[in-house]
Here is the input.
Amino acid sequence: MFKVLATGLYFVALLGAAQTAAILKARDPGPVDCRDDLGAAALGNAQDSVSCINQLAARGSDACNADQLSNILCQQGNTAITILNKQLNEGGTSDPGNVALTCNDVAQAAGHIMDICTRGDGTVRGSTDAFDNSNVIVDIRGL
Here is the structure.
């Protein structure tokens, strides 16, 4: 379902060359937290995560905005990719312009989580800021 490149980036074989290039374009990723504080129950399945990343990437420039505190953008099996609005999480109000992002932005951030947090047993869990929008956290974990 997915292949590991020499650089450690994951890509989904089902995507065309143009989509893959758009997803893998160079950007400065934020720090990733593999959320070891959450325990084994929060571990998601790596293959299910890749399936979700593929679905999000296929939506490309569609809006995947964090207009609520938390939005599950994709769930596969017991694994979900969720976005969290930092402004609402901190008790503030949220300006829609500050939490706008594309589904590609989410897919790229989720791929970065995969690169850093995928475990040898095929599980994954972690979070990072969305690409191009530090007001939004992208999170992968088991439900």
About this structure: The CA atoms of residues 10 and 46 lie 11 Å apart. The mean pLDDT is 79. Residues 2-142 form one domain. The two ends are 22 Å apart (CA to CA).
